[in-house]
Amino acid sequence: MSEVAQEVNHGEHKHRDDQGAKLGMWLFLFTELLLFSGLFLLYASYRFFNPVQFHNAGLETHTLFGTINTMVLLTSSLTMVLAIAALQRGKKWLSVSFLSGTILLGFVFLGIKYFEWTSEISKGLYPGSPLLLNKSNGEILFWGLYYTMTGLHGLHVIAGMFILSFMLVFILRGSVNQHDYIKLENAGLYWHLIDIIWIFLFPLFYLIN
Predict the structure, then answer these.
(1) CATH assignment of 5-207?
(2) Spans of all domains in the chain
(3) 191 and 102 in contact (C-beta within 8 Å)?
(4) Among 58, 49, 80, 56, CA closest to 157
């Protein structure tokens, strides 16, 4: 039997299908996984045929920046969980604090990524640069995949921050609350997906070399 909730809101019956909403979110996340899985397979195939070139190109990435950003996203996943748990216990302002912290950590991640990209671009390591065009095809492929995959991930971080910002407004207005928090849970699932994708990107571009 599907979980269908009915509650009274200002004298009106409000229909909710929490199970359906959660299922819809999982289906959406599955499509996102398919997108990145294709990119991961592309990376694996190119690396298989260009192992030395990928290794040499990977030595140019900033492992410290990647490590810090990994810790930032892992911490943001924790604050996301705490925000949901706090709201479920009826602690609205604690939830707001944790959710604000999650959004702030998203800004930190993007800030670090900005400085990382700026550093690499200043060295001429970007698609189409004269320096990169003089390197091997394998290294050109590596940097093309690097900017494509980390850039796409960065766009997902921005989208996730917008979603969490809306959730913050909903909590403050009371439309997302202790008795109706499925929207916040779904937003949390999306944020966790972003973190999981980075967990795969981090070793591929920073550690495996």
Answers:
(1) 1.20.120.80
(2) 5-207
(3) yes
(4) 80
- State residue 20's pLDDT score: 79
Phi, psi of 12 (to 5 degrees): -115, 150
CA distances from 84 to 152, 164, 168, 179 (A): 27, 12, 11, 12
Q: Token digits for 192?
A: 């966790």
The token pair that represents 5 in the structure block: 């909730």
Collapse the DSSP code of 22 into the 3-class scheme (helix H, G, I; strand E, B; otherwise coil) and give the result. helix
The model's pLDDT over 195-205, given as tens digits with 9 standing for 90+, comes to: 999 999 999 99
For 38-82, how does the pLDDT look when each residue is reduced to its tens digit (9 = 90+)? 999 999 999 999 999 999 999 999 999 999 999 999 999 999 999
The sign one gets for the Cα dihedral 29, 35, 36, 41 is positive
Residue reference for tokens 């996102």: 32
7 φ/ψ angles, rounded to the nearest 5 degrees:
-140, 155
pTM above 0.85, yes or no: yes
Please name which of 161, 57, 66, 160 lies closest in space to residue 113, comparing C-alpha atoms: 66
Q: How far is CA 186 from the centre of its chain?
A: 14
Q: Contact at 8 Å (CB) between 99 and 163?
A: no
Distance CA 99, CA 103 (A): 6
